[in-house]
Design a protein that fits this description.
Elements (H helix, E strand, L loop, with lengths): L1 E3 L11 E3 L9 E7 L11 E6 L16 H35 L3 E2 L2 E2 L4 H30 L6 H25 L11 H10 L7 H13 L2 H22 L8
Antiparallel strand pairs: 1-2, 3-4, 5-6
Helix pairs in contact: 1-2, 1-3, 2-3, 3-4, 3-5
The chain binds flavin-adenine dinucleotide.
Length: 249
């Protein structure tokens, strides 16, 4: 359980704790199960849980009081990367189903594989999956060389890009399967539903994008200075070689 244990701490990053709470503990009520796009997501599932005067020993606090974000930060980098690795695998599987399917169906007397639009889907999907795989490898490499903090940008890029790519590939694969692609006869619809959750689980895309933009925005003093240096170099070179701007002629 992730809980706000010290709401008035001036350091926002130290207000939360992670506490182990066995589900049999008195005061816990599992109110109902929640479906994901209609699937029950068993065996782990997702539930609405009520906590009422629940008490556990202080030794159940992981790492120590107020260190919840520290625990999350350490765990979530590799966790997010793992989700992305699985997303690449899901995309590859959807792609394989798409290729197989378009060689088994015809439309207007022509194999789907020979239709221009389908060829475009195949090419796009191959490009996107391979790009996503490289983005994952890059983030994994950064994580290996440092830690979750030093790989923050690469992890955010990965977390935003990879599920979206995998969803696009799965969407094309479902479309190539026609109505069958949306039912239980193929693993596509369920895989799409799983992938869609990864745009929310471990934080929504928008929160990662905002964090990524915050980090990138910090580069502005350096970039402004660099552009000024480049402009000065251009002016110096123009003066040196007597180049006159066309607009000034
Ligand atoms: C199937 C499923 C599995 C999950 N598994 C996990 C898990 O394993 N671990 C875990 O930690 N969480 C998990 N979650 C929870 C998930 O992290 C939250 O649903 C998610 O962080 C969004 O929080 P919220 O649902 O409270 O929505 P809200 O906080 O109300 O956000 C709603 C929307 O507001 C926007 N928004 C929110 N914050 C920002 C921001 N900072 N900047 C810009 N826009 C923003 C986004 O569009 C967001 O989707 C899971 C969720 C689902 C649906």
């Amino acid at each position: 359980m992730f809980a706000c244990s010290d709401p008035s701490n001036p350091n926002k990053a130290k207000r939360h704790s992670i506490i182990l709470v066995p589900k049999e503990t008195r005061g816990i009520t599992i109110k109902r199960s929640l479906s994901v796009f209609g699937y029950d997501d068993a065996p782990q599932g997702h539930c609405e849980v009520l906590f009422n005067d629940v008490r556990v020993p202080t030794s159940n606090v992981i790492l120590g009081e107020g260190r919840g974000f520290e625990v999350m930060q350490g765990r979530m980098g590799p966790g997010r990367l793992h989700h992305c690795m699985r997303a690449v695998g899901c995309a590859e599987r959807g792609y394989e189903y798409m290729i197989a399917r378009v060689h088994q169906r015809t439309a207007q007397g022509k194999l789907l594989a020979d239709q221009g639009v389908i060829q475009d889907w195949i090419a796009k999907s191959r490009i996107e999956i391979d790009s996503a795989r490289l983005v994952v490898c890059n983030a994994a490499d950064m994580l290996d060389r440092g830690d979750a903090k030093s790989a923050m940008v690469e992890l955010a890029i990965c977390k935003i890009m990879v599920p979206n790519v995998a969803l696009a590939v799965l969407d094309r694969a479902m479309q190539a399967h026609g109505g069958g692609g949306l039912c239980q006869d193929f693993p596509l619809a369920k895989t799409w539903a799983y992938l869609r959750t990864t745009r929310l689980a471990d934080g929504p895309d928008e929160a990662h994008a905002a964090q990524l933009a915050r980090i990138e925005n910090k580069k502005h003093p350096e970039l402004i200075a660099m552009i000024a240096r480049q402009e000065k170099t251009v002016e110096d070179l123009k003066r040196k070689y007597g180049v006159v701007d066309r607009a000034k002629l």
